[in-house]
Every structure is written in structure tokens, then in C-alpha cells.
Write a structure and sequence with these properties.
Blueprint lengths: L1 E7 L8 E7 L6 E10 L2 H7 L16 E8 L11 E4 L2 E3 L5 H4 L11 E2 L18 E5 L4 E2 L6 H4 L5 H11 L7 E5 L3 H13 L2 E6 L5 H7 L3 E4 L4 H5 L4 E6 L7 H5 L2 E9 L12 H4 L4 E4 L5 H14 L5 E4 L4 H9 L6 E5 L4
Parallel strand pairs: 10-11, 10-13, 11-12, 13-14, 14-15, 16-17
Antiparallel strand pairs: 1-2, 3-4, 3-8, 3-17, 4-5, 5-9, 6-7
Helix pairs in contact: 4-5, 4-10
């Protein structure tokens, strides 16, 4: 085991502080990654504040990781020293179940091993990317194309794939009308990706405060959901709605914005249960779906797509001593649109 510098939450809801975490020695199929940048995802905040349930402390969050390979195991074939790589929300799975064999490892029937806060196959609790180095199996490591700088690529490992997967799988493209609910860390990438796919894109946000940003990012239209006229004007308008918000919204109202046979996909994860009137689904044969990141192959596909179209995240680069400040600003929706930690400052 090797100790590396990191930032960790010592207990639930406690401020993160500088510390060290242990990394395993590089195994036969492992790569050692010198982490250059780590994105701050709202999931990190939910987890360290135990808003999604109990977790293990001390905990180093971070599953939007971009860096450079500095060592490879003897059996590694996918990467070499010097390669630019990323790590997303999972670092292992059973590799044997139907889902793993089918390329949807995120839905491993035995449970995937999350990048942080999960018990790995070695019995140890995983620690994430708010650190200087990480050791990851090559099969759960992604190649970052040369067309993407590492700082703007880091958030793609969660925010990018979380929005790319439902947009692709539910048919965003030319001739389709797509709405994105919320223009935050996830939403701004959903707008960029949907636009690059050729869809007509509408942002549905609480207010018009970010309208100028939304249009610059690729939205064709921008509406305030606080205005009840929005739900009247847009009724029956969309083929696909992607909800990116982690707060409870009126799903019944949003279902009313779908065309017959349209789909509302939720990628946000509110802390509390939602209320749903089933007649809102039955009328118009509408669909309410969920989506969770993507498999390794699909994540690589997303990175290649983003490089081809020049799609990096909009970021605010911070030093590690500003992580706690950044958490408060994320909760207050005061970031445009993803905080990224310069891990050289850890």
C-alpha cells in the first residue's frame, strides 16, 4: 500500500480536510494514474452529507477523474505510461453477470464497485479522486482523446455520460424536440450534447437568469418554469425530456409537455420520494424512465463524441482548499457549471 495526499470528509456533514489515503500496489492489470483534475459532482455532496443513506468515513469523494498514466501492470494491454486517461463512477463489477457481459456494468447484478464509498473485491472501501493518485483496473479506465483538455474532460466522466446515455438511447437527433430541465452541471452538458446530436433543444429552468448562457451552449429556446404559461404554451410539444435536477419537481406537469408516446427521463436523484398521478402517464401513452451513467464502452463512445464535436464542460477551476466553499456554492446553484479541483494543490 502507498499513502497519497487527499481531501476527505472525516464524518457525515463534516467539512473536508487534507489527509492521506492508501492506494494498493499496482497489480497485473492495473494502471497508476497521476490525477491532474477532479470534478465536484452534486453526488459527492449528497454522499458525504449522508443524504442518500449511510456511508463509510473517512471518505474521499470524486468520480470525475482525469490524469496521466505513470505505471502499468505487467499484463496491461490497453494503456502505456504517458497516456491521458479518465475514471468515472465505477472501478469494478462482477464481470460475469448478464449485465456485465452485455456492456452495462453500471447495472451489475451483484452491484458495481463505486469509485468511492464502495467495498471493493479486496474488501477495502474505495476512495475517490480528490487525491493525487489512484490505482484502477485497466478495464475500468477510459482513454481521453487528444481533442479534449484534461480539465474540461474531467466532468464528462459523470456529467457527460449521465446525459449522453439517455439522449442517445431515447433517440435525440434531427427532427426531435428535446427539453432539458435544469441548467446546472448535468443540464449544461445535456444541452451541448443534444445540440450536437442535431435535436431542437429547449431549456426549462426556474427562471430566465441563465437564458443567455443556455442559448450560447446550444439551446434553441429557453423558458421559465416558474411562469405557469410555460406549461400551457408547451403542452404536448416534446419527444424527449431529460430532467437533470436533484430536487423534487412536479412530474405530472412535465409529463403534460410530452407528445403522444414521448418519454421523460430522470437522471437527477432527489432525496425524497416523488408524487405521481398515473393518469399523466396513461393519457398519451407516455413513458417515465430513469438512466444511470453508462457502461465502459458507452462512456468511451461519449468521450470520443465530445472530442469530435469539441464539447468540454464549462468549468471553474479551484484549489483544493476551496472544496468546502465549492460545496456550499453547488447547493446554492452558484457555479457555471462545474467546479474542478486542480489536484496539484492538494
Amino acid at each position: 500500500m502507498t499513502s497519497v495526499a487527499a481531501y476527505a470528509a472525516p464524518a457525515a456533514k463534516a467539512p473536508l480536510e487534507r489527509t492521506t489515503v492508501e492506494r494498493r500496489e499496482v497489480g497485473e492489470h492495473d494502471v497508476l494514474i497521476d490525477i491532474k483534475y477532479a470534478g465536484i459532482c452534486h453526488s459527492d455532496i449528497h454522499t458525504v452529507r449522508e443524504e442518500w443513506g449511510k456511508t463509510h468515513f473517512p471518505l474521499t469523494p470524486g468520480h470525475e477523474i482525469a490524469g496521466v498514466v505513470t505505471e502499468v501492470g505487467s499484463g496491461v494491454t490497453r494503456f502505456k505510461v504517458g497516456d491521458r486517461v479518465g475514471v468515472g463512477c465505477m472501478v469494478d463489477s462482477c464481470r460475469e453477470c448478464e449485465n456485465c457481459r452485455g456492456g452495462v456494468e453500471q447495472h451489475c447484478l451483484k452491484g458495481n464497485v463505486g469509485t468511492y464509498g464502495s467495498r471493493g473485491r479486496d474488501g477495502e472501501i474505495t476512495q475517490g479522486g480528490y487525491s493525487t493518485h489512484i490505482v484502477v483496473d485497466e478495464n475500468y479506465t477510459l482513454r481521453i482523446p487528444d481533442g479534449l483538455s484534461l480539465d474540461v474532460a474531467a466532468p464528462l466522466l459523470c456529467a457527460g455520460i449521465t446525459t449522453y446515455s439517455p439522449l442517445k438511447n431515447y433517440g435525440a437527433g434531427p427532427g426531435k424536440k428535446v427539453a432539458v430541465v435544469g441548467l446546472g452541471g448535468l443540464g449544461h452538458m445535456a444541452v451541448k450534447i443534444a445540440h450536437a446530436m442535431g435535436a431542437e433543444v429547449t431549456v426549462l429552468s426556474q427562471s430566465l437568469r441563465k437564458k443567455e448562457d443556455g442559448l450560447k451552449l446550444g439551446a434553441d429556446h429557453y423558458y421559465a418554469t416558474a411562469d405557469p404559461r410555460t406549461f400551457e404554451e408547451l403542452r404536448g410539444n416534446f419527444d424527449l425530456i431529460v430532467s437533470t435536477v436533484s430536487a423534487n419537481v412536479d412530474f405530472n406537469a412535465y409529463l403534460g409537455l410530452l407528445k403522444t408516446g414521448g418519454t421523460l427521463v430522470n437522471v437527477g436523484a432527489p432525496e425524497n420520494p416523488i408524487s405521481l398521478q398515473l393518469f399523466a402517464l396513461i393519457g398519451g401513452n407516455k413513458n417515465l424512465a430513469g438512466s444511470m451513467i453508462g457502461g465502459i464502452a458507452e462512456t468511451q463512445e461519449m468521450l470520443d463524441f465530445c472530442a469530435e464535436h469539441g464539447l468540454g464542460a464549462e468549468i471553474e477551476l479551484i484549489s483544493a482548499d476551496r472544496i468546502n466553499e465549492a460545496y456550499e456554492r453547488v447547493v446554492a446553484s452558484d457555479v457555471r457549471y462545474r467546479f474542478v479541483i486542480d489536484t496539484a494543490t492538494i
